[in-house]
């Protein structure tokens, strides 16, 4: 679940929200003045996002990064593919 907060609420409960970012893999959006905002996310989540963007899509590194982002609910899970003759025929 993503959280959207005011700057004063974030400041008043910073430990609670930072724990949610790290322990529950939450993303916290903090609204600031002048219609500006920031996002707070874990270093690990940011690492996998950057990794997925920096490597080739057909590489093992991309597959691992993509899997990590699926586990963190950043990307949707892959649809289940029916195992029938049409499916397997595409690999011949």
TrEMBL record:
InterPro entries: YefM-like_sf. It comes from the Bacteria. Belongs to the phD/YefM antitoxin family. This is Antitoxin.
């Amino acid at each position: 679940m993503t959280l959207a907060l005011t700057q004063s609420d974030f400041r008043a409960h910073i430990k609670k929200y930072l724990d949610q970012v790290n322990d529950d893999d939450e993303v916290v959006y903090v609204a600031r003045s002048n219609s500006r905002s920031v996002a707070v996310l874990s270093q690990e989540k940011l690492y996998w996002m950057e990794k997925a963007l920096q490597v080739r899509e057909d590489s093992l590194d991309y597959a691992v990064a993509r899997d990590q982002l699926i586990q963190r609910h950043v990307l949707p899970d892959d649809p289940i593919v029916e195992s029938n003759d049409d499916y397997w025929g595409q690999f011949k």
